Amino acid sequence: MQIYLDYSATTPPRPEAIAAMQAVFTSSWGNPSSLHEWGGRAATVLEQARMQVAAFLNAADPESIIFTSGGTEADNLAIMGVARSYTTPQHIIISSVEHSAITEPAKLLQQWGWDVTYLPVDSNGRVNPLDLQAALRSNTVLVSIIYGQSEVGTIQPIETLGNITRSAGALFHTDAVQVAGRLPIDVQNLPVDLLSLSSHKIYGPQGAGALYVRPEVKLVPLLCGGGQEIKLRSGTQAVPTIAGFGTAAQLAAEEMPAETARLIALRDRLFAHMSDLPYLISTGDRLARLPHHVSFYLNSKQITGKTIVRQLNLAGIGISAGSACHSGKLSPSPVLLAMGYSDLAALAGIRLTLGRETTQADIDWTAMVLKQVIERLIPTHTSNSLFTPHLLHG
Fold this sequence. Notes:
By secondary structure, this protein is of the alpha/beta class. The protein has twelve helices and twelve strands. The chain has helices at 15-27, 37-56, 71-83, 100-111, 129-135, 158-167, 228-231, 239-273, 305-314, 334-338, 343-346, 360-377; strands at residues 3-4, 65-68, 91-95, 115-119, 140-144, 171-175, 194-198, 209-213, 280-282, 293-298, 317-318, 349-353. A seven-stranded mixed sheet has the order 2-8-7-6-5-3-4, with helices on both faces. Strands 9-10-12 form a three-stranded antiparallel sheet. The chain is globular. The model is unreliable at 323-327 and 381-394 (pLDDT under 50).
């Protein structure tokens, strides 16, 4: 029996997305910039996908969707595209629990003389809007706050944060990679200027993503060349993967109401199963939380999150230790550290994320195995230091 519970790392491409890709490979494989019939067929596929992704976000103008190679490139285009439009360094604000696709560009900007403010979070990983209000300056040009945190599942008060940013005259970007397909996103009503997506988080293929750019927002492209993607992302578009992305986005929008409710029920069932284990402590905000996301840390000096991942893998269950992007490193989670946890606790985080193929039987079996693994690794007679996170607020 094998159970995959790492849907925040990647999702299996759905059959409809694979079929859309195969159709492009066989009949619409032309260069969409070419003027002949072969290019025209590819261009039609490309623009259909653009309209599908725009509808997914309720974007009025399909040309506000810029296709990229994934969420990382979309984040980089947002941060660096804004920064490169200024001739002198300015000020940007990000949270202390961003994905590395945001924190690394921010570090680069600091090397170039920019001021970067890292907003603190509380013990649940939430940004206090008052902290954002206090951090804004006259030269703040961009605020980037992650919508749903991939490691601990916390959802930020994006509407409030976006309104505060707009009232100060700065641009607002959010990385919505984990939220897309799980909660509705309406960019006509949400106060965002830039928003990042990734195909392989919504059952589309890896290698495609998008940046929503509100009309009138000016970015400087990262890539120079033929001027594709509304002159913001040069290079011949990956039409097959984009077609799969568009199909996945359309189906995700159609299925979201029922699927989100189902995932919430499974998520809460898993939390309930594990609630009587004294060494397993939930992380993140239990109410403002991604529908598919369950996360804990092991309150033991002896066991790291990676140990649990390996043990469950031997039992045929796939989970992750913190963010998948850091899974090769045995170092404390920057997200848990930012939330006030000790170094030991920040080494002991685990994440179980659910998806379309997850069943109630999967949840029940995983809970049983996880309990057995933890009870075997942490015998009841063992003396453990039950360290409590040092909270940044309160």
